[in-house]
Amino acid sequence: TFTAVHALQILDSRGHPTLQVALTCQGGSVLTASAPSGASTGTHEAVELRDGGRNYSGRGVESAVAGINTAIAELLLSRPWPSQRSLDGALCELDGTADKSRLGANAIVAVSMAAARAFASVAGQPLHAWIGKTVGRAGRLPVPHFNVLNGGAHAANPLAFQEFMIAPTGARNLPEAIRWGSEVYHALGTVLRAKGMSTGLGDEGGYAPEISSAQEALELITKAIEEAGHSPGTDGVSIALDPAANYFYRDGVYELNGSSYSSTELVGYYEKLVANYPIRSLEDPLAEEDAHGWTELTARLGNLVQVVGDDIFVTNPELLRTGIQNASANAVLLKPNQIGTVSQTLDTFTIAEHGGFSSMVSHRSGETMDSFVADLAVGLGCGQLKSGAPARGERVAKYNRLLEISDAHPLLPYGLGTPHRETEPN
Ligand code: PGA
Ligand code: ZN
């Protein structure tokens, strides 16, 4: 039972407005959450409510805040809530649109996340344990995927691919994984300085040097892994890419390094990269509308690497079901604000699991200090979390939360775990 609901407008890590909500429970405990915001969004994401007008270049969220403080508050205070699912269902009903555009997915997701914290608190459990119980999974500390080199919509350099991540798959435990990530990140800074390249940062805290090709980026990162004293590959530090291909796809072709690639040619390019570098995961390698390309890439590369759908599935249970039927990928990225409620995010995870897909939990490029996704990754036991570089407050808030959970629960396993796709016929 809630006794008060209050939201306010705050700033995200890019200095754009977002919102924070506080739910007060009977007994006095106050649980808060805040909404992140993407820059390279999928077409079918749930819609953020923005004010328009002159303030904050139209990006204010005063109307979303007002919706929480009036209509949503009235709903939440009207009766006791037996479950997260009943509360999330009522929020969707109150909104009444398929894309949550009336109250705003930014408003709804923050309320839903704060409510999950309230349910966990009433159950006397940490958030990750409550999530684990809700989906019937044993917890696991995920392999952090540190985004150490930024391009695309997250940086001003000419690099088309958006994210170059390092994953300490060979680390024995979470603190070691965090250490390796930090060591490689700093080694990369040293490599860049030695070459006279810029060590300015992109939106997710990774370096954004003035390079234009993926090979150059992969060479720099492989060198940094070695300079930090680790071995590139599964036993040491692997690499994961999120090209976010929507953003270099125009009129049916991919524009990369000044040349045009057909879908099949781009798949061939990825094949070469995968053969030459220790790449374990490819997210959004093709544009969301290039359905045929996704199926082709998964058929050709799906047994070598994880193929993750972000913009193509947008954490949406129905879009994921279609993707599983079409063998479009073999993994899904989970971002609660893409779909708008915690319950729907958990549904997407369950559908992935039944379909033999892996899951990776993710932050957004515009973030706050809220560390919800760290608990989500641990609770689901999916083995993978991406939350940007091992630097900058809003990114390390998630990694530090993992360290806290690891410290409090020394028996939790660390690592990728059994890939769900082992059960997939193929
Ligand atoms: P976004 O980027 O938060 O800007 O959408 C993250 C991603 O593409 O994974
Ligand atoms: Zn992505």
Provide a descriptive summary of the structure in words:
The protein is an alpha/beta fold and 426 residues long. Helix content is 39%, strand content 17%. It is built from 13 helices and 14 strands. The strands form 3 sheets. It has an 8-stranded mixed barrel with strand order 4-5-6-10-11-12-13-14, surrounded by 6 helices. Strands 1-2-3 form a 3-stranded antiparallel beta sheet, covered by helices on one side. Strands 7-8-9 form a 3-stranded antiparallel beta sheet. Strand 8 and strand 9 (259-261) form a beta hairpin. Helix 2 (84-95) runs antiparallel to helix 3 and helix 4 (127-135) packs across helix 12. The longest helix has 21 residues, at 174-194. The radius of gyration is 21 Å and the shape is globular. Mean pLDDT is 96; it is low at 420-426. Bound molecules: 2-phosphoglycolic acid (PGA) and zinc ion. Its main location: cytoplasm. This is Enolase. It catalyses: (2R)-2-phosphoglycerate = phosphoenolpyruvate + H2O. The active site is at residues 204, 335. Its EC number is 4.2.1.11.
Q: What keyword list fits this structure?
A:
disordered C terminus; 3-stranded antiparallel beta sheet; globular; 426 residues
Give the overall shape: globular
Instruction: Quote the beta fraction.
Output: 15-25%
Spatially, the strands of the biggest sheet line up as 4-5-6-10-11-12-13-14
Distance between the termini: 49 Å
Number of separate helices: 13
Q: What letter string, H or E per element, gives the SSE order?
A: EEEHHHHEEHHEEEEHEHEHEHHEHEH
Instruction: Indicate the mean pLDDT.
Output: 96
